[in-house]
Amino acid sequence: MNNPPTTEVTSLWPLAVYFAAVVLIVTVMLALSSVLGQRHRERATAEPYESGIVSTGTARVRFDVKFYLIAMFFVIFDLEAIFVYAWAVAIRETGWAGYAEMLVFIGVLFAALVYLWRIGALDWGKRQ
């Protein structure tokens, strides 16, 4: 008869114990906070409070599309910084070939930035 390998089953029990411990701790913390926590019923408790400033008006403010464009450009160019950092960590292993590739990479990024600048994607106001 073929017995199932016991090494796979025995290697998973620490994960099951960890998962059970996490669920138990979260459950206990939520139960204790609901039982022992303070209850406030004042009128000011339900009002939003941001950095010492009492809010006025609605939170549904419409932003210009250019704000989201700038945010996307920031995320894209910030993501490229991760690749430059990874290259800087491994610069000794990549040698001159890696240096040349990084110059090309940064050149393409610079060309994209110049292109965005030239078409006016980075301008907040209207051109005069």
Q: What does this molecule look like?
A:
The protein has 3 helices and 2 strands, in the order H-E-E-H-H. Helices cover about 65% and strands about 5% of the residues. The termini are far apart. Helix 2 runs antiparallel to helix 3. A hairpin with a 2-residue loop joins strand 1 and strand 2. The chain is mainly α and about 130 residues long. A two-stranded antiparallel ribbon has the order 1-2.
Beta-strand content bin = under 5%
User: Helix-strand pattern, N to C?
Assistant: HEEHH
* Uncertain regions spanning at least 5 consecutive residues: none
Tally of individual helices = 3
* Cα end-to-end separation: 86 Å
Radius of gyration: 28 Å
Helix content class? 55-70%
Shape: flat
The profile of the biggest β sheet is:
2 strands, antiparallel
Secondary-structure map with pairings?
Blueprint: H1 6-36, E1 49-50, E2 53-54, H2 65-89, H3 91-119
Helix pairs in contact: 2-3
Write out key terms for the chains shown.
flat; 128 residues; two-stranded antiparallel sheet; mainly alpha; 2 strands; 3% strand; 66% helix
What's this model, at a glance?
With 128 residues, this protein is mainly alpha-helical. It has helices at residues 6-36, 65-89, 91-119; strands at 49-50, 53-54.
